[in-house]
Amino acid sequence: MDFERILRILVEAGVEFVIVGGVAATVHGSARLTSDLDIAYGRTPENIKRLAGALAPLNPYLRGAPPNLPFQFDAATIRSGLNFTLTTDAGPLDCLGEVSGLGGYDDILMRSMAVTLYGITCRCLDLDALLDAKRAAGRAKDLEVIAELEAIREEM
């Protein structure tokens, strides 16, 4: 997983996005490892074009889909969908138009903070928003990290 490569590509293309999920938990001090990058992305026509263009060189493909399935991650595909779990040449990437418990990009952006990773400045969910998203998702792996994140919040 090349987090730096994906982040650099997105930022350099001017894609409006917020880091959510496991990487956001790590930013806040979680010791859990994650093998993919989850982002919430803005759904304006311009941003969708930037997202599709930025990721094109990474050959995005639906994660878990048969290798011969015709799939093109372009602006039309993104407009027709919402959340995409992708495999790319830089590793797994989930592009989310909405996040459970938080809503769409504008709602998520209001609950984010600027962070610098690998010398790249981008946006990441704040700790309270991340906890809300983990609670709303309710998956076993999310429930496991809630206690750790709550302890981190108490220490702050």
Please describe what this structure looks like:
The protein is 42% helix and 25% strand. It contains 7 helices and 9 strands. Strand 6 and strand 7 form a beta hairpin. It starts with a helix and ends with a helix.
Brief rundown of the structure:
The chain is α+β, with helices and mostly antiparallel strands and 156 residues long. The chain has helices spanning 3-12, 22-27, 45-55, 75-80, 105-110, 127-137, 140-155; strands at 17-20, 37-41, 61-62, 83-88, 91-96, 98-99, 103-104, 112-117, 120-125.
What labels describe this entry?
single chain; 156 residues; alpha+beta; two-stranded antiparallel ribbon; globular
- Compressed to H and E, one letter per element, the order equals HEHEHEHEEEEHEEHH
The class by helix and strand makeup works out as alpha+beta
Radius of gyration: 15 Å
Sheet with the most strands: spatial strand order: 3-4-5-2-1-9-8
Beta strand count: 9
How would a textbook summarize the main sheet? 7 strands, mixed
Global geometry: globular
N-to-C span: 30 Å
Sequence-ordered SSE layout with sheet pairings:
Blueprint: H1 3-12, E1 17-20, H2 22-27, E2 37-41, H3 45-55, E3 61-62, H4 75-80, E4 83-88, E5 91-96, E6 98-99, E7 103-104, H5 105-110, E8 112-117, E9 120-125, H6 127-137, H7 140-155
Parallel strand pairs: 1-9, 2-5
Antiparallel strand pairs: 1-2, 3-4, 4-5, 6-7, 8-9
Helix pairs in contact: 1-3, 6-7
